Amino acid sequence: MTRRLARLPLAFVVVLSIILAACSSTPAAPALTDPKEIVTKGVTSLTAVKTFEFTGSFTGKVKVPQMGDFDLSTVTMAGAIDVTNKNLKFTLDAPSLLGTKVEALVVGNTAYYKLAGAVAMMVPGGGSGKFTKAEVPTASGDPMAAATDITKAVAELQALLDKLPVPPTKGADEKCGDQDCYHVTSKLSAADLKSLNPTAAEGDVTFDLWTRKSDYRPAKLSFSATSAEMGKVGMTLEIKYDVPVSVAAPPADQVAP
Fold first, then answer.
1. Tens digit of each residue's pLDDT (9 = 90 or more) over 179-232
2. Contacts of the segment 168-177: beta carbons below 8 A, 24+ positions apart
3. I need a surface site. Which of 61, 138, 184, 242 has the fewest CB within 10 A?
4. What is the pTM of this model?
């Protein structure tokens, strides 16, 4: 009897540890096989997102009439969004596009942007080297809320998926960093695009989506287009969630009067 009593505390600790481990572990999301459902789940998974950041890279060369080819491999972009506080920041650096640079901030309902290079030539006062301040239009409601209206986005996405002449396909699962991901690909020929929109430009497009198997959140997106007029170009976005995002208005002396 004494030995049994002595073993009770140890047994209690073991059982308690198992219970705590079971309670603290995150249940695995149900496995998906339908590519359309994977895409839809990727959108609905964003409802609880508070913050995220993304980085973008480009490939290929774009042909511009009377200006020649522009190499996109040197172009990069990055951004971060604090959904809760309605703040965001975005940068685009495109040295091969006549030194184009874009820096943008949104703090609440106020936006700040600074332009350099070719894009600055297209906007009055864009080459001042300082931020231009502008109020974000709110006549049609909260722009951040509109941009994150998941219900509307899902309805529009499902309608688009149903219209596709060629349905998306699911490839083999892949690694996205330390995450296991689903991989869905949608390929549309020039004829497919014309059936959706008769005014669409000539060319083929491919869209790839990788979503995390653990919670369905999109981890990476890739888009490529090929046409006789523009050549072949591609863009890849990689996304991280629940990261610290700090966005503040620029100092007053860096804002154009």
1. 999 999 999 999 998 888 888 878 899 999 999 999 999 999 999 998 877 778
2. 168/35, 168/36, 168/39, 169/35, 170/33, 170/34, 170/35, 170/38, 173/213, 174/210, 176/210, 176/212, 176/219, 176/220, 176/238, 177/219
3. 138
4. 0.80
